[in-house]
Design a protein that fits this description.
By secondary structure, this protein is an alpha/beta fold. It contains 13 helices and 14 strands. It has a seven-stranded mixed β-sheet, with helices on both faces. A three-stranded mixed β-sheet has the order 10-11-12, with no helix packed on it. Strands 8-9 form a two-stranded parallel ribbon.
Length: 414
């Protein structure tokens, strides 16, 4: 099973894809430091720097060889911390994602982005992205504005037309904490399954929950016992926990303490910390409105790329005594579920940008594994039905057929 990874960044999504059983046929990334990170840690076929501009990438050698296309198109146009220019922003790379799907025609694709993509101001553009990925053959005409192209896509979608390359596309906002990642990180996932596969797909069910963490802390005390410490009083949490009638079936959310329990605090134990790669104390952390740090006994707040405000933004630990410090690179990598063997290139600020833009490896693995399993399961069911002769014959029926290239509707019979 082969995959192509676009906008690879530091490799969080790519590592998840690989661990779900795919082999990268090409990995494309333009940023110098991210390319250095990938080059040191992987043996992937990396197309980087001058060869990493997706707008110039030639997919022709890979046609017919790729099962999955993945990537995180640059999120700055939609980020809650950015300028929210969306389709007016030259960094919007969703059109290039659609081009990759059109040319490679994979069985499936996964694109992820920040939750700001689902802001009300971008509702129409998100629908435009969805329809472009549903019908990648229906490309914009020369000089055509996106709203005019959206109208053609809507006509094509609602006309009952068929023909050409088509995908069934679903979009969901997922919280990484619900899947065992020690970070409350919400990301939009866009998944498409090629229509001819007749494969059903739904997003994987959450495995972890806040209520389960509250129960573990304040009803059976397992959380504190496991860490060998006395409970840290929290009236708000205790009040909510007391309202729970039964022990939740899901696993507890993972906390910052869970993620970092076995490595020394670099501020208090600098000598021991120095023995761990990428784990050193970074001075200068300060708290201000909107940036108060991540409490030790909760999942971390969303790690940010840090182009706004103090470098690293919210990337701070807040201890129970309200003292704060920046997360080290290694700690941040753990919060993003990168393996400890993974090394990052660049300064602390540059590395935090890579980590702040990354997909948690564990979340990526779960989503990609779910796609693979559901496609394989649907295919197996289809073969079983066909082999025992239960498939109903399909008669010819009059349908409206469209040119995938123009979107013009014509009468026809299929």
């Amino acid at each position: 099973m082969k995959s192509v990874e676009l906008f690879a960044g530091a490799g969080g999504l790519g590592l998840g894809v690989e661990s779900a059983g795919y082999h990268h046929a090409a990995v494309v990334e333009i940023d110098r430091w991210a390319c250095d990170t990938l080059a040191e840690n992987t043996k992937w076929p990396l197309h980087g720097w001058d060869n990493g501009d997706v707008r110039k990438f030639d997919y022709s050698p890979l046609v017919g060889k790729v099962d999955l296309v993945t990537g995180g198109p640059p999120c700055q146009p939609f980020s809650m911390g950015g300028r929210h220019r969306a389709f007016l922003d030259p960094r919007d790379m969703f059109p290039e994602a659609a081009r990759a799907v059109k040319e490679l025609q994979p069985k499936a694709f996964i694109f992820e982005n920040v939750k700001g993509l689902k802001r009300q101001a971008f509702t129409n553009y998100l629908e435009y992205i969805r329809l472009r990925l549903c019908h990648p053959d229906l490309i914009p005409r020369d000089g055509e504005e996106w709203l005019d192209h959206l109208k053609r896509l809507e006509d094509y979608e609602t006309s009952g037309a068929n023909g050409g390359l088509a995908y069934n596309v679903v979009i969901r906002l997922l919280n990484a904490a619900d899947y065992g990642v020690p970070q409350k990180r919400e990301r939009v996932f866009i998944v498409g399954i090629r229509e001819d596969l007749a494969a059903a797909f739904h997003f994987p069910d959450p495995t972890h929950s806040r209520d389960a963490l509250l129960w573990s802390k304040w009803r059976d005390g397992d959380y504190w016992e496991r860490h060998g410490i006395e409970p840290v009083e929290n009236y708000r949490e205790q009040t909510r926990a007391n309202k729970l009638r039964e022990k939740p079936e899901k696993l507890p959310w993972q906390t910052v303490r869970d993620a970092l329990h076995d490595i020394p605090d670099p501020e208090f134990f600098p000598d021991e910390a120095m023995r761990i790669p990428d784990h050193r104390f970074i001075p200068g952390a300060r708290s201000y409105p909107g940036h108060t740090g991540s409490p030790l006994d909760e999942p971390a707040k969303t790690l940010k790329a840090g182009v706004h405000g103090v470098p690293g933004g919210e990337n701070m630990l807040r201890r129970p005594d309200d003292t704060i410090r920046y997360f080290s690179i290694r700690e941040s990598a753990r919060l993003q579920t990168f393996p400890d063997s993974f090394r990052f290139h660049g300064s602390w600020g540059e590395t935090m940008r890579q980590l702040g833009n990354a997909v948690p490896v564990q979340l990526a693995r779960i989503v990609v594994k779910s796609i693979r399993e559901q496609i394989e399961c649907s295919n197996e069911k289809g073969r079983t039905i066909q082999s025992i002769g239960q498939e109903k014959p399909r008669g010819k029926r009059g349908e409206r057929v469209a040119s995938a290239e123009t979107g013009d509707i014509a009468a026809g019979t299929v």
